Structure to design on (118 residues):
């Protein structure tokens, strides 16, 4: 996604919904009219305001601007990596096996979502 006020507001809204936060708490940081101006009038947020929103949402400013963080990973990829790191090694190995099987099946044209029980 390109950097634009519309995309930033969309990412903010998605993250608020995903985390079950209250929009009214966000409005204490950024008034709803300001968000509307970013989205509808093409106004650009200040760096400081983006930083305050990033802290509130616990995301990076890079993610707010581009949908990716400085590592180039999306929010979903970061979440997946974070969860993977909390697993024990045997569970990590199992996950890698499942992913490898999915990739192999997709190369064969098998679009089934089922995996063999282990």
């Amino acid at each position: 996604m390109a950097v634009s006020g519309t995309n930033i507001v969309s990412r903010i809204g998605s993250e608020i919904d995903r985390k079950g936060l209250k929009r009214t708490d966000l409005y204490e940081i950024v008034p709803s009219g300001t968000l509307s101006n970013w989205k509808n009038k093409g106004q650009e947020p200040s760096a400081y305001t983006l930083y305050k929103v990033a802290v509130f949402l616990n995301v990076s400013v890079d993610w707010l601007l581009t949908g990716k963080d400085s590592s180039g990973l999306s929010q979903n990829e970061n979440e997946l990596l974070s969860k993977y790191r909390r697993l024990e090694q045997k569970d990590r190995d199992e996950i890698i096996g499942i992913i490898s099987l999915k990739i192999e099946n997709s190369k064969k044209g098998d679009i089934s979502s089922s995996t063999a029980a282990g």
Notes: The chain has two domains: 5-72, 76-108. The radius of gyration is 19 Å. Residues 76-108 form one domain.
